[in-house]
């Protein structure tokens, strides 16, 4: 959500910022609706005040035995006029709220210009990709030849974009979860949480999934939503609260399944595990004071990168350009892991600083010591990491062409009972 008072003061600043995302000027319509709403509110207040004053006069006149018929007629006329004005004010307010809720966050000044992902800016790289002379199969071929990745049976049960993992790959999936949670909690200071997987519409609205992206998520017949990411329940822990300043920063992590309809990604990455309706992720969420959010963003990104460094996977970090930055973010770093078969880097984590955008939608605040007024919190979120994509990257980067097996990264071996290599079941 946006600060309407700030928009009134500097509308040109807001329009210039939204223009970086390719939007036309929005503030003329915002200010028009705001002015109309305030005029209606003023008219209602004047009528209410007039009704109250005349009602008092009626009581005084009647107590003295006088004739109050004229005043009573005036009060009746006001009561008759008020409901229509209230309905009008409500309709204009709802129209203004819908417009404000549909507009993306304001971009940080440091976000580079650009229309789409082709103009994202590389910040740093880790390890050089191993190109070699032997073509690496994609993860689906590797997994199927291992006998441990079954898309066909999953489709029979659930439809497309689902998979069944078994044996060594299922064990590695579990190992990745435990490894990532251990790193984020024991080394990076995040508190492990186990949140609900079903949330109310208010929670989805608070983090920006609703109303704009409702078609990308699954809603139950009872009205709750399957979480598209645990960012939703973790961030909403502070919804509606005035947080004790002494408890900040708050850092949460959770492993959950995530559910996405991928309505906006039809036809993309239809093969393999890159883009599925159900996937697993270790999420990081930070709740901080405004002055700490920039440093927290850098810290969170490094926490995600550290997982890939320990796994010894080549990756690069890019800052998203204006046209590629997500709806709720004011600045985002994408971490992209190298996939040998595609001979390119693919996103494995997205770390975003949302500023006070989500906090305003959730009414999440804190009170500074010695101050009477409250201040909106800042929220950040990032993957630490996406489990499926990490598994894909290991399968392709640690593939052994001699026997079709997959070497287990050294840091994962203790989580897999000492197993150093996953070999095909046939062998």
Describe this structure in words.
This protein has 427 residues and is α+β, with helices and mostly antiparallel strands. Helix content is 41%, strand content 20%. It is built from 13 helices and 18 strands. It has helices at 4-9, 11-19, 27-63, 69-101, 139-146, 151-158, 167-187, 201-207, 231-235, 293-311, 357-362, 387-397, 410-413; strands at residues 121-126, 149-150, 164-165, 191-192, 198-199, 225-226, 242-244, 250-259, 278-288, 315-319, 331-339, 344-353, 365-367, 374-376, 378-386, 399-400, 405-407, 421-422. It has an eight-stranded mixed beta sheet. Strands 7-13-14 form a three-stranded mixed beta sheet, with no helix packed on it. Strands 16-17-18 form a three-stranded antiparallel beta sheet. A hairpin with a 6-residue loop joins β13 (365-367) and β14. α3 packs antiparallel against α4 (69-101) and α7 packs across α12 (387-397). The longest helix is centred in the N-terminal third of the chain and has 37 residues, at 27-63. The chain is elongated, with a radius of gyration of 27 Å. It starts with a helix and ends in a 5-residue tail after the last strand. The model has no long low-confidence stretch (mean pLDDT 95).
């Amino acid at each position: 959500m946006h600060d309407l008072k700030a928009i009134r003061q500097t509308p040109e600043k807001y329009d210039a910022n939204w223009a970086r995302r390719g939007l036309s000027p929005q503030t003329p319509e915002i200010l028009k609706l705001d002015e109309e709403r305030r005029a209606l509110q003023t008219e209602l207040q004047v009528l209410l005040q007039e009704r109250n004053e005349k009602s008092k006069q009626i009581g005084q006149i009647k107590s003295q035995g006088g004739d109050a018929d004229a005043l009573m007629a005036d009060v009746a006329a006001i009561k008759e006029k008020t409901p229509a004005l209230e309905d009008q004010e409500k309709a204009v307010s709802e129209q203004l709220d819908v417009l404000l809720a549909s507009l993306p966050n304001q971009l940080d000044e440091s976000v580079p210009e650009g229309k789409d992902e082709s103009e994202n800016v590389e910040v740093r790289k880790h390890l050089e990709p191993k190109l070699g002379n032997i073509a690496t199969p994609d993860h689906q071929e590797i997994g199927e030849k291992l006998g441990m990745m079954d898309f066909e049976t999953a489709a029979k049960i659930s439809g497309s974009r689902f998979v069944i993992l078994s044996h060594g790959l299922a064990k590695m999936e579990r190992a990745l979860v435990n490894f990532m949670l251990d790193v984020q909690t024991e080394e990076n200071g995040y508190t492990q949480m186990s949140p609900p997987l079903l949330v109310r519409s208010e929670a989805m609205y608070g983090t920006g999934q609703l109303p704009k992206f409702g078609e990308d998520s699954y809603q139950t017949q009872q009205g709750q939503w399957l979480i598209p990411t645990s960012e939703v329940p973790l961030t909403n822990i502070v919804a509606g609260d005035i947080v004790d300043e002494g408890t900040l920063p708050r850092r949460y992590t959770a492993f959950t399944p995530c559910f996405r309809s991928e309505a906006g990604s039809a036809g993309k990455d239809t093969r393999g595990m890159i883009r599925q309706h159900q996937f697993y992720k270790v999420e990081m969420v930070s709740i901080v004071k405004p002055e700490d959010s920039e440093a927290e963003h850098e810290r969170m990104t490094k926490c995600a990168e550290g997982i890939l460094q320990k796994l010894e996977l080549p990756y690069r970090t890019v800052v998203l350009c204006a046209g590629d930055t997500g709806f709720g973010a004011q600045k985002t770093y994408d971490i992209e892991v190298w996939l040998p078969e595609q001979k390119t880097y693919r996103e494995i984590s997205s770390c975003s600083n949302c500023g006070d955008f989500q906090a305003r939608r959730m009414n999440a605040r804190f009170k500074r010591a010695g101050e009477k007024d409250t201040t909106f919190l800042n929220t950040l979120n990032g993957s630490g990491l996406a489990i499926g994509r990490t598994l894909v990257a290991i399968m392709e980067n640690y593939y052994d062409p001699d026997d079709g097996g997959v070497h287990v990264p050294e840091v994962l071996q203790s989580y897999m009972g000492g197993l150093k290599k996953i070999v095909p079941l046939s062998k």
